[in-house]
């Protein structure tokens, strides 16, 4: 392993991408680690419906949603997924510091500003995957 590289995620990642632009959704999907199980939806309504029966490891979303306020969507995701510990990554062109603070306070775990290179996105997802994996192994080690 090269210095500074992130070791591979051992389990396949389940990723939900919420983006109203289909081409951006495909672009993000193609940059995910191999073996990732991906669902792409174009609206917050579809995402929240999907979360009723599917718990992804990572939710990737743009705070600039056409059908809702993206920060509100992060809060709704957190309310539904907090016990399972899904991680939330924001990938957006909205780069203001107040937006970043609002997203992080709402429950985002990472915030990337577009344009994002596929390599950078890939590394950040792998890093979040490692965090998720460590949390899962820590929870398994805790006494009941």
Describe this structure in words.
The chain is of the alpha/beta class and 144 residues long. It is built from 5 helices and 5 strands, in the order E-H-E-H-E-H-E-H-E-H. Helices cover 43% and strands 17% of the residues. A 5-stranded parallel β-sheet has the order 2-1-3-4-5, sandwiched between helices. Helix 3 packs parallel to helix 4. It is globular and about 45 Å long. 29% of the residues are buried.
Helical percentage: 40-55%
Count of helices? 5
Uncertain regions spanning at least 5 consecutive residues? none
Say how many strands there are: 5
Q: Output mean pLDDT.
A: 87
Rg measurement, Å = 15 Å
Question: How much strand?
Answer: 15-25%
Widest sheet: strand ordering: 2-1-3-4-5
Envelope shape: globular
Largest sheet: 5 strands, parallel
Task: Give the distance, in angstroms, between the N- and C-terminal Cα atoms.
Answer: 35 Å
Q: Give, in order, the helices and strands.
A: EHEHEHEHEH
């Amino acid at each position: 392993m090269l210095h500074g590289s992130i070791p591979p995620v051992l389990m396949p990642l389940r990723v939900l991408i919420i983006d109203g632009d289909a081409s951006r959704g495909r672009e993000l999907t193609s940059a995910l680690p191999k073996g990732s199980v991906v669902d792409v939806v174009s609206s917050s309504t579809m995402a929240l419906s999907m979360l009723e029966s599917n718990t992804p490891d990572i939710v990737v979303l743009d705070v600039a949603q056409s059908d809702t306020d993206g920060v509100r969507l992060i809060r709704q995701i957190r309310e539904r997924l907090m016990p399972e510990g899904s991680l939330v990554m924001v990938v957006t062109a909205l780069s203001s510091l107040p937006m970043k603070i609002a997203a992080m306070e709402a429950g985002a775990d990472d915030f990337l500003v577009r344009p994002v290179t596929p390599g950078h996105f890939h590394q950040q997802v792998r890093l979040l995957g490692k965090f998720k994996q460590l949390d899962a192994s820590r929870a398994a080690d805790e006494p009941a």
